[in-house]
Amino acid sequence: MSDYSVIGKRLPFLECIPKGTGEIRFADDLRLPGMLYARTLRSPFPHARILKIDTSRARALPGVEAVVTAADTTGRKYGYWPPGVKWDQWSTVVDDRYPLAKDRVRFIGEELAAVAAVDEDTAEEALGLIDVEYEQLPAVFDPEEAARPGAPAIHDLEDNTCIHLTMRAGDVVAGLAQADHIREDRFTFASINHASIEPHSALAYYDPMGNLTVWTATQMIGCSRSVLAYLLDLPEDRIRFIVPAVGGAFGGKSGLFPFEYCAALLSMKTGKPVKITYSREEVFTSTLRRYNLVIRLKTGFKQDGAITAVQCRVAAEAGAYVGLGTPPLVNGAIFLTAPYRVPNLDYEGRKVYTNLPVSGPMRGPGLPQTRYAVETQLDLAARDLDLDPAEIRRRNVLQTGDRTALKWDITSCGLEECIQKAQTAIGGSEDSTGLACSSFMSGYDYPARHTNPGSVSIEPDGTVIVQTISCDFGQGAETGMRQIVAEEMGLPIEKVRVRSGDSYLFPGQWWAFSDSASTGRAMMEAASQARRQLLEVVAEDLEAKVEDLDCKGGRVYVKGSPQRGVAFADAARKTFDRRTRAAFGEARFCARDELRRTGQRGPFLACTFSAQASEVEVDRETGLVDVKRMVTAYDCGRAINPNMVEGTLQGGSTMGLGHALLEEVVWREGQPLNPSFLDYRLATSLDTPSVETILIETVDPAGPYGAKEVGQGSLQAAAPAVGNAVFASIGAPITDLPITPERVLKALQSRESS
Fold it and tell me: Is 0.85 surpassed by the pTM of this model?
């Protein structure tokens, strides 16, 4: 670490300064002259045929400037990705949704019409003047019920299954036959809202030159632009997406939403800027939510705890439309063979339509649920086999150099150390503590236009400008990118500026994650190109070879002779004068290309690993669970900025605690009963204990300076660690999340009566 000037240093989040001063501007803060306000008419029924929509009274209301329905659209359907695009080798292309419902509505809150007016009150009044005739249809809300014969057909599919995925490795029948002990358990998970403090909002303006600009807090800037161009039948180069500050996302602001489409269409109709901001209830009823999964898990164990085989059946509730596609199923299958050795796997997952809002990604789609099932079952098996929960995990952990049952390579793994450090740090009684482990992908093999682009230019005054379409969602991505580039240039971080969140910067790209393993690699390569151009100019003046020069401490000098050199700013000016342009580098990092180059097997470059431990106190009279302490030991590769890594781990643990104990959208016949922060319980400072973080730096060869991801993996083990602590405390497992007082009392009663 001493060799680096910026990497590994505990620098402050530079993005936090405008947030702390209140100067930051979110999408709903934006205003344009002549701006109109829009509201959306929504279905009151979970499933119904649309017989007639009459908007004449709404159009006649003073102050209303436009009303749009499906009749005003191109009639094209869309999905999560641009038409014809497959996310991965397992994907099925499904374009199953109209931006405004055309023939049927399939969930309460689905969009039928939108109104643009001079103010929100007028727009809201106009919605009440739109007359809609419906024919109600039977509805279904549970994924297992929806897949049964005779269930209401939501998209004219016999069993409502929109995606069916299988993954197999080895011989599960033989593996189970070799087992000394077999466990088979069923797990269920509630719907969870992303609960970003900032609601969804978009401002669109179709200018007189025929160019459409959309300001919106999206996580998929280029992809959303492509989908919108298709739906509006506009050339992509006529559309520009700009991302202002984002007030939380967690996957809930990915994909094109109907409100963004409606703002754009209404602006095209009126020639004026149009803004839509959702109410909190609309966020709950009409955006995305985490997948409600039913998992049936069967695992064989030897007497010493070694896993012999895993058989898993998953029913994932898609909601009314297919949404993201395969990832919630693929992720579950991939990480059934990590972080533990699983020699034989039989996985089958089905994504099933229901009459609920669309499900979507949330910090590792499908994986938190799978981890809860696996980690809970491991503790049950440890009890059955009279083994220590930590020991059964150590018996099965992957090691660096291992290849999983699915033939994917593990390039670095610090899981054994994570387990040891987490267990030591939590201490406490075995009757009140729980342990869980997880892993997550770092640098995924995305489709070609999902490569992570970046450019770096050295301005004449020595300032370095970084450009990327990757956006910061609160994780400190900009600070991380600045550190990587500053290290390459030998400059203090203050000399690096970031321009991001604009589709014009890299118009051919759909989506770039702020993943340190991918975006960071692109930034390193782009910075290296620009740096070499600067060194070539200085080398001429110093009569030295480029390879003999270095950049550190704001100077460019001959290695071993720091007195022979020039200030970085002087070198930048000379480079500009001599080349008549700034030194510039641009790179796109593609994990697929890197995997081919190295011969490494797998859909990702590396895996992060973690062990989390929790200590709880359970009130046996009320069923209330009080989490006293949480410890997270995380194999992050190299920590680019330990402050950011630790903050992310603390945030992930807190969110996981909320998922374990509190969060659940309660539905009744498709209607959410708690669509507000008054009734939907989030973990607050009063619920959150001290979260101790331990960084295990394995330094992976694929990542920039050895770094791996942190953001999505930090959540995975938190809920099962709490669940296993509750199990240790009451002697009965909780297999349905969240762990409510009612479920705790029921488990206690069941244990006492057995």
Answer: yes
